[in-house]
Amino acid sequence: MNLLIGYEHFIGGIAGGFVSTATCHPFDLLKIRYSANEGNQLRPKYSSYLDAIRKIYSANGVKGLYRGITPAVVAAPLSWGLYFHFYNRIRSFTNTSPKYPFIDNLLAGSITGGIILSLTNPFWVCKTRMCLQYEHLAKEKQFSGLVGCLKNVWKTEGLRGFYKGYIPGLIGTTNGAVQFAIYNRLKDYRCHSLGLAQDSQLKPLDYLLFSTLSKCSSTIITFPYQVLRTRLQDHHVKYTGTIDCFSRTLKVEGVFGFYKGCLAATIKQLPYSVITYIVYEQTRYYIERLSKT
Q1: What are the structural domains of the chain?
Q2: pLDDT attached to residue 27
Q3: How far apart are CA 94 and CA 96, in angstroms?
Q4: What's the confidence (pLDDT) of residue 1?
Q5: Measured between alpha carbons, how far is 241 from 286 in angstroms, rounded to an integer?
Q6: Half-sphere exposure of 230 toward its Cβ, with a 13 Å CA cutoff?
Q7: Half-sphere exposure (CA, 13 Å, Cβ side) for 53?
Q8: Residue 82 Cα distances to 77, 116, 133, 163, 282, angstroms
Q9: Residues in the chain with pLDDT < 70?
Q10: What is the CA radius of gyration of the chain?
């Protein structure tokens, strides 16, 4: 197990990202469909989240609720694994001002998030487009899968197509940065209050509380970027860029337009964050214990 030493954060992140993504994807599907809905007539009409689930399930069964799952389970675990790994590496270099740990966490999270987004944005574009394959559209307009979607984007839009939504996504790295900064601050405070060394293993209930508080806070603060990112990646409507998307959304829908799908995102983030962090923490501590035997 010595080969795993130094990679416990990476492996833990992959495990946490995979389990949480596979479990909570239907909520992500709803969030994306609500966020993309700017009033275009081709969009399906949902009176509520329950109505959306019922209509999607009625048309395609459970499979319909998992549209876009393939790029999600490729990109999310990889993103979480790299995020936790490089975040902790970068944090060790940026942690030069003990008086301002929140700033250190925020800086480390932003740098890490930006690097990972550059590597994974093509998968997020495909995830968005596959989630927005509406049940009532002709089958010939549907993507055959992740590979088919990647080929279609490359053929019709080139490299630029893989980086649609990149700018708001880059701004959105503050979501993970804010979340992880709050999470680590709460965890450090808890360890200090119990008289434990920093980064000591805590009870699952502590991780449950800290992950919930940190993710809900960061989601509400930064959600508008998710709407912009989704709409720019959507293949049904064309925008000239981030500013065009922002101005058209504000003009037609007002501030409310930037929070479409926020409820679904918040509902999703509760179990998603809890599963991600608990699996991550337990996996990395398991690897650390094995490496000592």
Answers
A1: 2-292 (1.50.40.10)
A2: 94
A3: 6
A4: 52
A5: 45
A6: 28
A7: 8
A8: 8, 7, 29, 19, 17
A9: 1-5, 91-102, 104-106, 137-141, 176, 293
A10: 20
